[in-house]
């Protein structure tokens, strides 16, 4: 107790000492990431620690505002020319950090670069529906897709425009080390393993950043990130859990920043194999999992139970499907109906990346209603491979979380439910037809109707069980003004500071 | 001497070759890095394309042969994850590892050896019991715990030092102590034992009988004779400081090789791991070699033809 009081006193003293320094030097915003970016070439990687940084250096084709609506960025407006062609009219006042203007050539180059199989971008799968990019004039680009593709705009939210003249001149490797973009911040320095420094682009065409300099550091240990926040060494830190968020609330100089993301937690079952080929067993599992208990008792970080395999942040969320209630008695009687077959041993595949408290709780819940479930732990690469093999080899049970980074139902429901997809253990003509309609119809009402029908089928046939919409927790200095968004972006020019 | 060096060089080459082969195959047994590089939504065709571009679609023997060919030309390849040469990545981390190892060595050697001497010379005094307690405590505290305690106390509470990161000398102090205290205990114990060993020998007794003062006895005889075990331990401890700093590096966000190793293993960045292991093997062998040479410098009775007294 004395220790604690002393600690709080010390924090107050530290804060008092830190304050004047902050006031004069709040041109530097320090952000603690978990790891350093793997690459700052926006086409060369796919991980949050990278895109937190490079999305401030580059402009994207379009972007999402804080409400999640798609709004213009490089493309000022767009119109559909045909089922497969969309024309984008670009802003004419964007210049790269080296002073050269951003033109249609750069957009075409960016599309061709990221879709070039030789370049092997990890993001290839998000853009490979685009078969042609053509510059009509300096400010007009027409993108052609290999069929009607309603998810084109949500994907283009992630298409960073790189300068053709720079990349071609210096090559991919040099560009990765010294990226040149057109965004609100200019790349300054990358001290490998330590930090990336960005400076404000004073000539930015849009909203300029509030901080003259931003420093992104790699701090792998969450307890250290908290200490950095507490001592004022960092102003914003990523990836905290709910215990740490509660701890933050007791600090006088910091606060948790929580947002519901587009990541959906779900429980998958290999319905091609006994006993999971029996809908009664699948329904029993759905009834046996205490979703509220997981969300409130274990996660306790702002997650929401969902009854659909999407979140409210997705297009395709209907919102009127009730999640399965928690009813272990009903689950037991369904299992009793099935009889001996229900006792077949089943493996629950997991890896250390997933919250083991949840995995163990689910195993416990399923064991309590009489199922025979064993946890099988592998490393992440093995887990990922096992998910993407044949129905025969795939794990029986899986707890997982899915984000398509596109906020569209197609990005999550198609890979998980369409027959023949590597992640899918389901095969139904009706579901396939609806998924195909959702993927190819350009009529929003028709798409929404298709996803509504799919949500009902998922509830009825239980190919897998939607659990919750995941939240993420950041920690910020008390003075930091920032609203985190569902797509896990970190735009510096949307942040402010008020002492 | 020349023969000794040549033989050791031959052994070193065989050892390095063995280590590299082992690492090559063990890593590839653990699975395929491609899945970790692409988003969940990637199709099988995307995954295949990625695998081809990394050269992982080739039969493992073909991969191994081209690996040996590259290594022979000192080409360590490019990181799958960061897409830049492995040598660039390792070269950027090595200075930090050396700084931390140096700082930790200063703490462990600078504190450990004098403590060991004191504990041996005045082994019956009550104050020595306290020192023994301190040494035991340092050895028993796990670094992830002592590290975070140091941060809370010196950075958050007192505000004297930065809590994490790398930069100036002030960033180096806390991690050096967190890491160094652990091997400090080893140095203290080994020094103490070696000293006690020497103190019980006849020449010490007769020297004392002749009236030789303790300081002179210490500097002229004891220090030199007790140094051998300390040197052997130092070789081991230094290679451990270079390799085993993972936890301290994680806690203090110190960008050294240990942290890089773990991150590269987790992301299956094979070529980076191979590069680090090669350096590790090389350093360990070099340190042991240096220790062997030092033995003969400190104690001329040891000759370098492989026979030791």
From TrEMBL, chain A:
Signal peptide stretch: 1-25
Gene Ontology MF terms: peptide transmembrane transporter activity
Any GO BP annotation: peptide transport
Superkingdom of the source species: Bacteria
GO cellular component entries: ATP-binding cassette (ABC) transporter complex; outer membrane-bounded periplasmic space
SUPFAM superfamilies for this protein: Periplasmic binding protein-like II (SSF53850)
InterPro entries, per database record: Peptide/Ni-bd, SBP_5, SBP_5_dom
Entry's localization field: Periplasm
Alphabetical UniProt keywords: Signal
Solute-binding protein family domain mapped to chain residues: 69-421
Assigned protein family: Belongs to the bacterial solute-binding protein 5 family.
Official protein name in the record: Oligopeptide ABC transporter, periplasmic oligopeptide-binding protein OppA
Source organism (scientific name): Lutibaculum baratangense AMV1
Automatic annotation (TrEMBL), chain B:
GO BP annotation list: transmembrane transport
Keyword Transport applies: yes
One Gene Ontology cellular component: plasma membrane
Bilayer disposition of the protein: Multi-pass membrane protein
Compartment(s) where it occurs, according to its Swiss-Prot or TrEMBL record: Cell membrane
Domain ABC transmembrane type-1, first and last residues per copy: 94-295
Entry keyword annotation includes Iron-sulfur: no
Pfam families to which the protein is assigned, alphabetical: BPD_transp_1, BPD_transp_1_N
PROSITE patterns: ABC_TM1
TM spans (from-to): 12-30, 100-122, 143-160, 172-191, 226-252, 272-298
Keyword terms: Cell membrane, Membrane, Transmembrane, Transmembrane helix, Transport
Family: Belongs to the binding-protein-dependent transport system permease family.
Listed PANTHER family: DIPEPTIDE TRANSPORT SYSTEM PERMEASE PROTEIN DPPB-RELATED (PTHR43163)
Protein name as catalogued: Dipeptide transport system permease protein DppB
Organism: Lutibaculum baratangense AMV1
